[in-house]
Amino acid sequence: MIIDDEKITVENSNLAHGMGALDLQKFEPFPKNPAISKVFREIGLADELGSGMRNTYKYTQLYSGQNPLFEEGDIFRTVIPLKKIATQKVGGGNVPHDVPHSVPHDVVQGVVHDVAHDKIILAEFIKEKVRSNDRITRKAIADEAGVSVKTIERAIKEIDNLQYVGSGNNGRWELNE
Fold first, then answer.
1. What is the pLDDT of residues 25-52, one digit of tens each?
2. How far apart are CA 119 and CA 95, in angstroms?
3. Are 174 and 165 in contact (CB under 8 A)?
4. Does residue 166 surpass a pLDDT of 80?
5. Residue 172 banded pLDDT, cuts 50, 70, 90
6. Which site in 78, 100, 122, 130 is 20 to 30 Å from 142, CA atoms measured?
7. pTM of the predicted model, to two decimals?
């Protein structure tokens, strides 16, 4: 992974099914390692196949106003364009350029904080949706939040005072506050 002022480039080896740039409209996802892919989907640590490419397009467009580039070959390459203002906001100047394989402790701590912060925000979002409609589906919450149903299911498991009472369409959410 290479991060510079203009882009993020990620490269990894690949058993190519084609060559050249991938088009989101024509792209058909396939697992590079089906056995591992299935395990991670089953335990809830991976979303549906192809969602990473769709999400990358969605968020890169929001973040930089441009489209990412996915190139398939013996090396799979992803290039995510950045706006100059984005790299200035993060303060890229304090990252050591002469140590390519190290990540500064404060950067790691910042990422951990952001992930924890995002989980709190998602939990509050779910609670708000349940307060306004105790019969809302996980799918409806996921669609409104812009995340996968699996992500919502994982977040719901971490909300101790939220439970679904009943079954199927006859059930409802209870939030004990």
1. 666 666 666 777 778 777 877 666 666 7
2. 26
3. yes
4. yes
5. very high
6. 78
7. 0.40
Burial 91-102 (b: 16+ CB within 10 A, else e): eeeeeeeeeeee
Sequence letter at residue 167: S
Query: Which tokens go with 157?
Result: 């498991």
Edge-first strand order for the sheet with 7-13 is 2-3, 7-13, 75-81, 69-72, 20-21
- 3-state SS of the chain is CEECCCEEEEEEECCCCCCEECCCCCCCCCCCCHHHHHHHHHCCCCCCCCHHHHHHHHHHHHHHCCCCEEEECCEEEEEEECCHHHHHHHCHHHCCCCCCCCCCHHHHHHHHHHHHHHHHHHHHHHHHHHHHCCCCCHHHHHHHHCCCHHHHHHHHHCCCCEEEECCHHHCEEEECC
Amino acid sitting at position 169: N
CB count, 10 Å around CB of 105?
A: 8
Query: Comparing 68-72, 92-96, 134-138, which segment has the lowest mean pLDDT?
Result: 92-96
Q: Collapsing DSSP states into helix, strand and coil, what is residue 119?
A: helix
